[in-house]
Structures are given as structure tokens and as C-alpha cells.
Amino acid sequence: MLLAIDIGNTNTVLGVFDGEKLERSWRIKTDARSTADELALTFGGLLTAFEITGCAACSTVPAALRELRVMLAEYYPHVPTVIVEPGVRTGVGLQYDNPKEVGSDRIVNTLAAHHLVDGRPAIVVDFGTTTNFDVVNERGDFLGGALAPGIEISLDALAARAAQLSKVELVAPSRGPIGKSTVEALQSGVVFGFAGQVDGLVRRLSAALHPEDPSAVEVIATGGLAVLVIEHCETVTRHEPDLTLLGLRLIYERNT
């Protein structure tokens, strides 16, 4: 079975594939201070029911990636491993001023999106620590995109800087967008505000990507916070919560 590991700034997502089928996935917090031995203890507890025969990983956290390498070398020395980094075959062209600036997660998502949409232009909206908008052309090239502050860090900043505001549960207010209390007003601004941000950016990006028919662009939502807002978005066409894990599987197959 293939173990796919996506280490993000806030969460780490693990998935186990049996062939093309994702058998199980987990989401745990990312702690850049975790040692290789601590990672092995955590991963080992989750994977006791599975026999791992391969591993694919990507990370946007250098310290966590370093410890992951050590953990894999010490605890899974005989398991073939592919870590997404320069030199690994992805099939993704990077039409970016400085390709070294592109996070490995964005490359993995680009490959997975191109695989899912059968060669149509696409935009991936990844709701994480930041909200990433990744633009993919018909050939599967990464063209660039947009980066916006994520939902949780925006709410944290608001609570920290405004004395009379506090953190609230991230749900849509039950009585609609007109908040009748401070809590409802915050929820409206966060949920409906971010939905509006997504729709506004997607429309601009779609018009630039495919000006002859912007509606032909497939818009794929992913990331741990996607479920909070996508039902209020008008432009998202599909939800793929395991998009990055799928991309890791495809990259592993290309390189082994």
C-alpha cells in the first residue's frame, strides 16, 4: 500500500492507497518541532492495520520535512520513497518567473487537477493557512495564481487587534447574512466574505485564463477549510478534499 503524506503549515494529511483507491486518510496538526522519533510514534499508531510498500510526500515546512526524511530512513528503510522536490518527475510545466518559489503542494495539486478535468483549463482553490488559487492550462502547466490570507489566520488577527471582538465558531449565521449580534456579524463577514472573495478572484482568473469562454474553466476546491464556505460560493464546480493525496499518488507512479 502507498502512504501519501502532505505536510502543510497548519495540518498534516496522511492517506493510504490500495492501487487507485484511497482506503483511509487522517488529518493531524503540524508541529515543526516534532522529532523523527515522535513522527514515527504518531504515524505508527495510525498505520498499524496497513502494510506500507511505498511512500510519497510533499511539505511546505522545511523543519518538518527534514525530520520526516530522518523518520523514513530509520523506521521505513526498505520502503521506496518519493519526496516532491527538484529533480522529481511531475509532468507539470512551471510558467512562473522563479519556479523555485512554487510550493510543492501547488505543483502536486496542479497535476491532480489536470488529471481530473481531462485536459480542460482549471483553477484549484486550496483553503488552508493561506487560500491559494492555482491556475492550470489545458496542457497541465502551472501558470501562477493568487494567494490570500487564510480563514483562520484572518479571524485570529481580527480577534487579536480588536478589543471587543473574539473568536467565533466558523459556521454561517443561522439567520442569514444580516448579523443580529456581534457573533453573527463576525460569522457573516468571515463565511460570506470569504465566499465573495473566492467568487471575485475566480471570475477574474477565469477571464484571464480562458477569455473566450470563462465558464469552461473547472474550479476545484480542496483543503481542510473548504467545507466552511464552498456551499456559499457560486463559482466552485467540484470539491475534492483529497486532491493533494491524489497528486502524490500520481507522482509516485511517475517516479517508480
Give a brief rundown of this model:
By secondary structure, the chain is α/β, with parallel strands linked by helices. It has 6 helices and 10 strands.
Descriptive notes:
- With 256 residues, the protein is α/β, with parallel strands linked by helices.
- It has two domains: 2-83, 2-Layer Sandwich (Nucleotidyltransferase, domain 5); 99-242, Nucleotidyltransferase, domain 5, CATH 3.30.420.
- 36% of the residues lie in helices and 23% in strands.
- It starts with a strand and ends with a helix.
Features:
alpha/beta; 2 domains; Nucleotidyltransferase, domain 5; five-stranded mixed sheet
Low-pLDDT ranges: none
- Separation, N- and C-terminal Cα atoms: 14 Å
Q: In DSSP terms, counting alpha (H) and pi (I) runs of 4 or more, how many helices?
A: 6
Broad structural category: alpha/beta
Return the average pLDDT rounded to an integer: 93
**Could you state the order of secondary-structure elements as H and E?**
EEEHEHEHEEEHHEEH
Radius of gyration: 19 Å
Strand content: 15-25%
Overall CATH class of the largest domain: Alpha Beta
Largest β-sheet summary: 5 strands, mixed
The CATH topology annotation of the largest domain reads as Nucleotidyltransferase, domain 5
In the CATH classification, which architecture of the largest domain applies? 2-Layer Sandwich
Q: Total strand count, please? A: 10
What topology, given as strand order, has the largest sheet?
3-2-1-4-5
Principal-axes geometry comes out as globular
